[in-house]
Each structure stands twice: as structure tokens, then as C-alpha cells.
């Protein structure tokens, strides 16, 4: 019989904070911004992304859209999200080092 350990999981309908609380720090999380959020203001996009990153905690997290990017998404909003995630994540890593 093979024994497997969960190394990563993703969450679409569960907040990262709730997923981290349930699974602990030994599991990498992936997710979970709703792609429709990219139709809101850039301030709202940054707020939502920050909430996801903070909720995932300081161990393994892969930030992505829950179901991919929607064709009519404003490119400037997608760009703002990517830039924010890179900058905010780098600042958190630097702060924790």
C-alpha cells in the first residue's frame, strides 16, 4: 500500500484564511481570486489580493485566479493585480526575513 502526503491544495469557495486554519502550515495553498474581481476598481482588486495573501499565511501559497482570466478583462486591471501580488509578496518575505 502506498502512503501519500498532501503537499498542495487549492481553494475556490473557501477563504485562504479558512483553508490555512483547517490545513495548517505544512500544506501549500493555491488560489483563489474570483476572475470577476478584475472588473472592479484597482483599489478593490488590491484589497482583495491582500486579503488572500495575508490569509494564506507565511508558508507556501500560489496566487492565481479561481478559474482563469475572462476575455473582456481590462488589461490594465490584470497588470495591476500581477504587479501588486509581486510587490506585496516580496515586501512580506523581506519583512519576515
Description:
- The chain is mostly helical and 97 residues long.
- The protein is built from three helices and three strands.
- The protein has helices at residues 16-23, 42-56, 75-96, and strands at residues 8-10, 28-30, 61-62.
- It has a three-stranded parallel β-sheet with strand order 1-2-3, covered by helices on one side.
- β2, α2 (42-56) and β3 (61-62) form a beta-alpha-beta unit.
- α1 runs parallel beside α2.
- The chain is globular, with a radius of gyration of 14 Å.
- The mean pLDDT is 87.
Q: What layout of secondary structure does this protein have?
A:
Blueprint: E1 8-10, H1 16-23, E2 28-30, H2 42-56, E3 61-62, H3 75-96
Parallel strand pairs: 1-2, 2-3
Helix pairs in contact: 1-2, 2-3
Quick summary of this structure?
This protein is mainly alpha-helical and 97 residues long. It has helices at 16-23, 42-56, 75-96, and strands at 8-10, 28-30, 61-62.
Tally of helical runs: 3
Number of strand elements = 3
What spatial order of strands do you see in the largest sheet? 1-2-3
Structural class: mainly alpha
> How large is the radius of gyration?
14 Å
Order of helices and strands: EHEHEH
**Coarse morphology:** globular
Oligomer: single chain
* Strand percentage: 5-15%
**Low-confidence residue ranges:** none
Largest sheet: 3 strands, parallel
- State the helical fraction: 40-55%
End-to-end Cα distance = 40 Å
Q: Overall pLDDT, averaged?
A: 87
